[in-house]
Amino acid sequence: MSTAVAARDVAVIGAGAAGLAAARQLRREGHSVVVFERESLVGGTWIYTQNTEPDPLGIDPTRPVVHSSLYASLRTNLPRESMSFREYPFVPKKSGQRDPRRFPGHKEVLEYLKDYASEFGLGELVRFETEVNRVWRMGNGKWEVRSRKIGGKEEEEKDEGFDAVVVCNGHYSEPRIALIPAVDGWPGKQIHSHNYRVPEPFRNQVVVVIGSAASAVDISREIASVANQVHIASRSTSAEEAAMLPGYDNVWLHPMIERAHEDGTISFTNGFKIAADVILHCTGYKHHFPFLDTKGIVTVDDNRVGPLYKHVFPPSLAPWLSFVGLPYKRVDSRHIIGRILLPSQDEMMKDVEAFYSSLQKSGVPKRYTHNLSGYQFDYNDWLAEQCGCRKTEEWRRKMYSATSLNRQVRPETYRDEWEDQDLVLEAYQDFEKQISCKDVSLKLQNFKI
Ligand SMILES: Cc1cc2nc3c(=O)[nH]c(=O)nc-3n(C[C@H](O)[C@H](O)[C@H](O)COP(=O)(O)OP(=O)(O)OC[C@H]3O[C@@H](n4cnc5c(N)ncnc54)[C@H](O)[C@@H]3O)c2cc1C
Question: Exposed end of the chain (fewer CB within 10 Å): N or C?
Fold first, then answer.
């Protein structure tokens, strides 16, 4: 992501999808790259673990952190073709115990990311089981990175200087909780979806699920198979729409919770009241950079990480500090990370201010700053253009829309039934043009049969 042609020493924090892609491109540009990774393997979020945090709501800042928020049954909510890195298609593999489904389980995504890292020799750049504890800028403009081996002693901490730091630490680990009036006096249990793994603990319980995004949809349906009742509280349900979820006899949709009560009941804004055992917050995550000290230049304010030019560069620190992978509700810009020519610091700052003020004028809360819903492809294309890369493929755009529509029409079965087979064919034809890969050819042969 550097404007400079000279080789630089760059630290990348995190070896998830974003860190791997950033490391690959930086090395291609001739930089010397060290990727710091807490875990013992690449893949980030996609490394499933049964472990959960001792604080089920994830609000205790001293708690031991579990990075991944995956639940055991998770399958992707996007088709594998549209999750593909452009130069390394995510195609079904014949070998071993791979999951060939178009919307595969989480293990398959992890395998794909491991394959990606090994295809491009990225593992050799990664310092595994090494946690970054502090990153700060020295007087000479260089960045100091303090890291420690997991389980290592404080005196074994190591400080190293880098020209640039790319932050790719993920943004699905620090829970955001719904504010529920009087919940402190409510006697039930609360948990955030970050700590949800399997439905069994909810057997015979009355569960209130808050949220309406992908995790809330998946988890509430899964819990319904064992729970006594599931009540989904969602901003997107109006009082008039409150009803039983079609296809279920124990799941109800409600508008938001009004308050909790000391007698164990929860009341909703539609007047409905229920005695509940558990509140499950599927309410998303907060951006969190506990290791980053920019002397207040970059802050997180109501989940806006800023000021950031195009969600990547703090103008006064660019290009020496950058953030990759912040935007969400995106198809993904991972496939177009490359070199970008930056305008002046002043111009970048003006652009950021204009962007923030346009959000304010449209009444968009700060916490949705990095939500690119509705213009993610324009953003990707803009980035691609700056980097001299091809724009988003037409099939990728169309497939995203087709999947979103299919998810609405077939919320229960969209991962196994679809009508965009023509786009799948287009995707594979495109993959074949870019890369000669045995698995792509095999898949194309299947189309021809
Ligand atoms: C439940 C769930 C379902 C999802 N489903 C999909 C889907 O279907 N399709 C899709 O495209 N995306 C999905 N996503 C989004 C997914 O997070 C992204 O696709 C992508 O994997 C994010 O990659 P990342 O590299 O930004 O972050 P991560 O994958 O989170 O990687 C960050 C890495 O940084 C490391 N790290 C963090 N802090 C430190 C530190 N201090 N020192 C050293 N290392 C550190 C972590 O260990 C981790 O390996 C889902 C996310 C969640 C939570």
Answer: C
- In angstroms, the first-to-last Cα distance of the chain is 43
pLDDT tens figures, 140-182: 999 999 999 999 888 899 999 999 999 999 999 999 999 999 9
Buried b (16+ CB within 10 A) or exposed e, 187-225: ebbbbbbbbbbebeebeebbbbbbbbbebbbbbbbbbbe
33 DSSP β-pair partners: 10
- Model confidence over 188-210: pLDDT tens digits? 999 999 999 999 999 999 999 99
Question: 377 CB under 6 A from ligand 1?
Answer: no
Residues 297 and 317: beta-carbon distance below 8 Å: yes
Judge if the beta carbon of residue 193 lies within 6 A of ligand 1. Answer: no
Q: Is the CB of 78 under 6 A from ligand 1?
A: yes
For residue 16 and ligand 1, the question of a CB distance below 6 A is answered with yes
Ligand 1 lined by 83 (C-beta under 6 Å): yes
CA 279 vs CA 158, 212, 273: distances in Å: 42, 14, 14
- State which of 45, 80, 219 you would mutate to test the pocket of ligand 1, scoring each by most atoms of that ligand within 8 A of its C-beta: 45
Atom of ligand 1 lying closest to residue 19 CA: 25
Contacts of 164 (CB under 8 A, 6+ apart): 1, 2, 8, 9, 10, 11, 31, 143, 319, 320, 321, 322
Q: With both helix axes pointing from N to C terminus, report the angle between 17-28 and 106-119 in degrees, rounded to the nearest 10.
A: 10
pTM of the model: 0.94
Q: Which atom of ligand 1 is nearest to the CA of 328?
A: 15
Q: One-letter amino acid identity for 132?
A: V
d(CA 278, CA 280): 6
Q: Rounded CA gap, 145 and 169, in Å?
A: 14
Helix segments in 55-95, DSSP class H = 80-83
pLDDT digits (tens, 9 = 90+) for 123-142: 999 999 999 999 999 999 99
Q: How many CB atoms lie within 10 A of CB 432?
A: 15
In this structure, are residues 187 and 202 in contact, taking their beta carbons and an 8 Å threshold?
A: no
Taking 70 as the pLDDT cut, the residues of the chain under it are 1-5, 329-339, 435-449
